[in-house]
Amino acid sequence: MDWLDQIQWDAQGLVPVIAQEQGSNDVLMFAWMNREALQKTAELGRAVYFSRSRQRLWFKGEESGHVQTVHDIRLDCDNDVILLKVTQTGHTPGIACHTGRHSCFFSILQDGTWQATEPVLKDPDTIYK
Predict the structure, then answer these.
(1) E strand intervals along the chain
(2) 46 neighbors 39 (Cβ within 8 angstroms)
(3) Collapsing DSSP states into helix, strand and coil, what is residue 25?
(4) Is 127 contained in some domain?
(5) Could you give the number of structural domains in the chain?
(6) Residues facing 20 on adjacent strands
(7) Residue 27: CATH number of its domain
(8) Domain coverage including residue 56
(9) Domain membership flag for residue 51
(10) Per-residue pLDDT for 113 more than 90?
(11) For 45-97, how does the pLDDT look when each residue is reduced to its tens digit (9 = 90+)?
């Protein structure tokens, strides 16, 4: 059996993916992959996601230069979530979020409101064309 066949793809042929920074173990982002994206990620050693809004493969960093080098690809016990252990490149410290922050998980619930806990490391208007 092909390793890709062991994954429990959803009805749209996608699987959720968590990108975690190797070393710090910071959760950087959440995205989706289809079969082709996961296969390319394994082949290239670089994160390739499936953009649901664009309906196409999304090579992380294709516009921003903030590439994710993949060290490990892990599958959860139910075979329905992928965990990538990555190094975020292109800026120091690494920027994974389109808002110019290190992690997409920068908001924390405090007293009934969401508060940003991480600074913007680079203005998104200077990152994207």
Answers:
(1) 14-21, 27-34, 48-51, 56-59, 68-75, 82-88, 107-110, 113-116
(2) no
(3) coil
(4) no
(5) 1
(6) 27, 85
(7) 3.10.20.810
(8) 3-121
(9) yes
(10) yes
(11) 999 999 999 999 999 999 899 999 999 999 999 999 999 999 999 878 789 99
